[in-house]
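We close this part of the discussion by returning to an individual protein. In the encoding step, the backbone of a single protein was reduced to a row of integers, each denoting a local shape. The sequence in question and its structure tokens are set out directly beneath this paragraph.
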Amino acid sequence: LLSALEARLQADVWQEANDLRPSELVRLKPEVADEFVSAASQSGMAVTTLTSNVQELIDDERKEVRFATYSTEKSRFEKYLKYKEFKSALKEYAKKYDHVTYTFMGRSYEGRDLIGVHIKAKNNLPIVFFECGIHPREWIAPATCLYIIHQLATQYDTDENIKRLVSKYEWRIYPLVNPDGYEYSHNTDRLWRKTRSKSRINSECRGADANRNFDIGDFCKHRSSSDPCSEQYCGDNPFSEPEVRAIKDALEEIKGRGEFYFAFHSFGLLWMFPYAHSRTPSPDHDLLVNISERATTAIEKVRRTRYNYGPISKIMYQSSGSSLDWVYDRAGIKKAFALELEPSSQTFDWKQAFMLKPREILGAAKETWEGIKEAVA
């Protein structure tokens, strides 16, 4: 009932009820809020209005966020950068450090490069692949990816563990796989989730949920929508989004070499693995549990942040068309993980949600990096 109601009223679900938590957090358009509350209440659900003006939260965030050009490498992690600043930073790392190469894996709907770096000490190494920012409003995800790039680039000559990691793997890191949506979330709609493409079905509603656009798991069946106006629109067809096709092509190019895949999201403090589309355990379930347990333990040691771990369909929700399931089943990367970064979905100040304060970037990035290092050890 709740899912049907949310779909009909085009609700933006920030947090879903699942095995870990009994409540949902939903953003509604003012014109449908009363109808939602009435229908949910009549069905026996308790509804609490936390705020009647989400824009106030966005305005408060803007007071703290400043987009002035950074002057030092450290200040890159004291504010949320925009696309051009990401691009400039990646090119700077590549120019300064011989083991870093600037690249892009395709172009977005609006023509932006899908920027990234390849970091390696030699050729033909197993690859660790990072997909960040597929949902534009989750700003902490690209920021954390940039921090990992920074560590691998700047610490290579002085940190023996970093040198070992760069000698063991090639790191392909793409901090902004949905740059159109990311820029739109900075400039126009802070809570934008989708790409910025135009649907052939309804050109008035822009974009698709890129993490529902992969051809896997009964396309557009679970936690997806065929309505172009929905936040979880699966797209006109599988791989309709150029950003998703670029990820697909980049992974097919390295088939047989992919060792790890990490997709960064927010929020919730979840370390997840396949499957999303099915509640049936994956063939590599025990291996993925073992890696997840080690990684989340490493994260907790940094500042006592406790991640939950498990299959996406169990600890989050069942969904079709995700990058992670496609990577696992089609690209053949068995050590595939999706992380929901800070803040926590259980103890957090809900007013932060996707709007994690800039002063929290460094702490979130550092603990995540410790988990990644342990996972690939």
Observations:
- Residues 303 and 367 are 8 Å apart (CA to CA).
- Residues 1-52 form one domain.
